[in-house]
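Long-time lurker. I teach an intro course on protein structure, and each term I like to show students one example going from raw sequence to a predicted 3D structure in C-alpha cell notation. This year I'd like something fresh instead of my usual example. Would anyone be willing to generate the C-alpha cells for the chain below so I can use it in lecture? Attribution to the forum is fine with me.
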Amino acid sequence: MSRIITITSGKGGVGKTTSSASIATGLALQGKKTVVIDFDIGLRNLDLILGCERRVVYDFINVINKEATLNQALIRDKRTKNLFLLPASQTRDKDSLTKSGVEQVLEMLLKMNFDFIICDSPAGIENGAILAFYFSDEVIVVTNPEISSIRDADRILGIISSKSQRSEHSDTPIKEYLLLNRYNSNKVKQGDMLSTEDVTDILQIPLIGIVPEDSAVLKSSNQGLAVILDTKSIAGQAYFDTVQRLLGINIPLRFFLEEKKSFLQWLFRR
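-- Reply from a regular --
Happy to contribute to a lecture. Here you go:
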C-alpha cells in the first residue's frame, strides 16, 4: 500500500530539502518505488540536490494546469533505480498550487503504484506547506536543537493536527515523527544546544532520527548528490538509519552522546 509522507519544518534553513532528498533516495535504494515532489513553488532546490536541474522541462504546475502529462514532468534519477522527481516551478507564484490540482496529481501517482510519495514542503504555514501535508498519511517534522526552531516546529504540528484531511474526515490521525537535524553533542554538553530529551519533551512526538552536524552534507549538495549516498559520512549513515525505521526496522539511535541538562539549565547556560 502506498504511503504519502510530507517532510516539513516550522522555519527555513533546518535541512528539510536535504532530508527529503536523502530519505527518498534511501527508500529507493531499499527497492521501494519512490517519487519525491517539490512543493516549494518559485524557489525549487530539490532538483539541484539530486543533480538533475538541467533535465527539468516540465514541472508540477504544468501537470496541474494540464500543460504537460505527469510522465513528461517526472524525472527518473540516473544514479538510483526506483527514484523519481516531480520538480517545482521556478516561474509561477505559490498560489498556483490548488487543493484539487494536488489531489489529482497524487491520485495519478497512486495509480502508478509508487510505494512512497515524498512531499518536500516549503517551510512555514503558507499555502504550499499546507497542501503538502493535507493529503498525507504521515509527516516528518525537521527541526534543529535550538529553541526558535523547536517553537516553530511546535506551531506547525498544531496546524497539521487541525488542517490535514485526516483531521477533517477520519478518526485515524496523521502520523507525526520528529527528525532532529544538525545535532552536535559537544554543543549540548556546553549548554549551547538542547538535548534530544529536551526536544522530545517539548514536542511530544516520536523521534525517527538524529542527523549530526557533518561537513559532508554541504559537499554532497554542491555535487548534486543526496548525502545518504556517501556511506562513509555520519550524516549519510544517520539518514540510512532513519529510512530503516520508516520501513519498520528497529534501529538504535546513534551519533549522540550527551550529558543530560534540563531545559532551565540550557536556558541559563549553567
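Some talking points for your students: The mean pLDDT is 90. The chain has 13 helices and eight strands.
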